């Protein structure tokens, strides 16, 4: 009995920081989705004009968020390699709470833009969270633990729009107050439970030549095989982003789905992806290893994208949606391979680079996929195919698969 009572606090002490990291990532994702349902009304409230004009400003705000994330993810990652994960995480969370309050009180479109810029910078906490998880994981555990982070992000992405839509009934500012309160509560939890993992043995000086995106890419790319894997990660991210980029337009055009039905389908995808990355990936990694898991995921997505491109039955598309989420094993497996190939004192830098790559894909993919959809969704066109963006994603996945299989990275 005495042994048991002594062990419990130790176990809780070890698990609380992991719980905090997962909550932080979930809140990052919720923060993105929480405000989506009310943004059209909020933009028209502060700017006036039509819904089409609000959509244009919504695109500007989303792009500003992604560009800032691209620019600052390596900076935040390198700062965490120098000053530690704990202070960087806590400062970012505090700034995130302030950002949501700015958005809550914003009376002009320009103040909303300032809020999105600050939000993009603070969203770089995702790279620090990944670096923290890499610090506390054994090499053979890294891919599976990155899967937990992916699951937390997926869960937040599902919960965010649902909660935002409900809070939106209380007014356009209510979701921002809720997001600010959640961020501040998480800040307080982190201040109490988060332990530092960067020791003097792996601490590294901060230099702007490595902290800017191009410098960080160059530094990380010098490691054997990493440059090729970064390209695979980017290509995969662009291909996978076809879902949020065109799903609402594609399903409405092809099946006449309502916003509620679109929300249900995206929720199914997000929940299944979270379960895959939290549970299934551990079994897959145990059976096949990281390299074969990446190959399986890319091949599986290739097939499901092909089916979605030509499906004409809405019920079949709904069935395919959660099945398609099985390909979500790719990202954590790729991250695990790269994390094991990078020194302990560069984990923050690597995760910062991956954050920038992901942010860049969020800038490129929507423009690319919606442009392809606009061309092939014209009913008077001689080649009408609303699912054409999925075919483009298939081509990208094939390129990524060939690039990945060219030469195994020594593990």
Describe it.
α1 packs antiparallel against α8 (174-193). The chain contains 17 helices and no strands. The protein has 2 domains: 8-195, MFS general substrate transporter like domains (Growth Hormone, Chain: A, Up-down Bundle), CATH 1.20.1250; 223-406, MFS general substrate transporter like domains (Growth Hormone, Chain: A, Up-down Bundle). The chain is 81% helix and 0% strand. The longest helix is centred in the last third of the chain and has 52 residues, at 259-310. With 411 residues, the protein is mostly helical. It has helices at 2-34, 39-47, 51-83, 85-105, 109-122, 125-136, 142-167, 174-193, 208-211, 213-221, 226-240, 242-255, 259-310, 314-324, 330-341, 347-376, 388-405.
Largest sheet: none
CATH architecture of the largest domain: Up-down Bundle
User: What is the CATH first-level class name of the largest domain?
Assistant: Mainly Alpha
What is the overall number of helices? 17
Secondary structure: number of strands:
0
Task: Name the helicity range.
Answer: over 70%
Q: Which strand-content bin applies to the residues?
A: under 5%
What's the structural domain tally? 2
Name given to the CATH homologous superfamily of the largest domain: MFS general substrate transporter like domains
Provide a quick synopsis of the model.
This protein is mainly alpha-helical. It has 17 helices and no strands.
Write the layout of secondary structure elements.
Layout: H1 2-34, H2 39-47, H3 51-83, H4 85-105, H5 109-122, H6 125-136, H7 142-167, H8 174-193, H9 208-211, H10 213-221, H11 226-240, H12 242-255, H13 259-310, H14 314-324, H15 330-341, H16 347-376, H17 388-405
Helix pairs in contact: 1-6, 1-7, 1-8, 2-3, 3-4, 3-5, 3-6, 3-16, 4-5, 4-6, 4-8, 6-7, 6-16, 7-13, 7-15, 10-16, 11-15, 11-16, 11-17, 12-16, 13-14, 13-15, 13-17
